[in-house]
Task: inverse folding
């Protein structure tokens, strides 16, 4: 295990195998303020990019978005998911290595219509990797994969870094991750479905890799405006195609550790620059008090 981040596992108390439900992972997430039908093909191409990197065996099951039943992701399953993604006005896509355990290999997509009732929604796709993949292939390969995924998506914002991964129906019992998340500021809480309904074009925190699109990148003065305000060693600003940019904070993703005085100064510097555009949740997580939520959302600002 790397010294840059903790090894966190939380198991189910039910069933004979006590399945792994919560674990640290690498999350690569993009937010697109566009209706599902405009991004569906791009998302499916990005799924193919992910599978080329990790292998078909990494995703073996899918959750039917209409019944919530788990089915095998065989040829028939792939045909069903592709047809639904390309034909539905709005849908979700949840692919996992196992239906009963969180192994770290996972894709979660929420595609919205962006009608009058979804004024702050954004179609959102997330790609997860176990930290073992990071250790085996190195941060350079993960960074390359994140850039390859980003290149095909019309994102307004996105990020990649260390995250807590768990089935989102566990959001009512997130007390299990409260302590590590308040201790390790660089550990993101991945909650794709709920976030997708209200994030709009805002930025969901500060991370190892920070993808900035419009309108935020224009508001901060573009890549040159960012370079003029970011001075931490190891911070890089890379201009991307179509008026977008990537800010990377160091060679490796890190979580920091507030108990050890590791506050991640580069992350704090970027947070101060981006503060006016940072996303704030409208509801708190289960197990988190109002003060806990304030501490979490301002962990790089206070």
Result:
């Amino acid at each position: 295990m790397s010294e840059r981040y903790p090894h966190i596992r939380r198991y189910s108390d039910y069933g004979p195998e006590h399945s792994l439900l919560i674990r640290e992972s690498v999350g690569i997430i993009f937010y697109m303020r566009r209706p599902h039908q405009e991004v569906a093909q791009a998302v499916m191409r990005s799924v193919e990019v992910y599978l080329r990197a990790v292998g078909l065996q990494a995703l073996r099951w899918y959750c039917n978005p209409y019944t919530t039943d788990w089915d095998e992701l065989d040829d028939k399953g792939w045909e069903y998911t592709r047809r639904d993604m390309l034909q539905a006005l709005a849908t979700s896509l949840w692919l996992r290595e196992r239906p009963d355990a969180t192994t770290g290999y996972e894709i979660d997509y929420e595609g919205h219509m962006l009608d009058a009732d979804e004024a702050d929604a954004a179609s959102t796709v997330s790609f997860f990797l176990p930290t073992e993949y990071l250790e085996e292939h190195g941060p350079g390969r993960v960074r390359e994969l994140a850039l390859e995924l980003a290149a095909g998506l019309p994102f307004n914002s996105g990020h990649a870094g260390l995250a807590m991964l768990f089935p989102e129906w566990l959001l009512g019992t997130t007390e299990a991750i409260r302590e590590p998340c308040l201790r390790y500021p660089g550990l993101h809480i991945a909650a794709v479905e709920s976030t997708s309904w209200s994030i709009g074009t805002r930025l969901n925190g500060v991370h190892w890799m920070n993808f900035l699109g419009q309108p935020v990148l224009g508001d901060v003065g573009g890549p040159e405006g960012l370079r003029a305000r970011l001075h931490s060693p190891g911070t890089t600003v890379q201009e991307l195609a179509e008026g977008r940019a990537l800010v990377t904070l160091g060679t490796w993703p890190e979580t920091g550790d507030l108990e050890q005085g590791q506050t991640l100064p580069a992350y704090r510097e970027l947070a101060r620059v981006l503060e006016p555009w940072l996303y704030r949740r409208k509801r708190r997580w289960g197990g988190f008090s109002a003060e806990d939520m304030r501490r979490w959302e301002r962990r790089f600002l206070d």
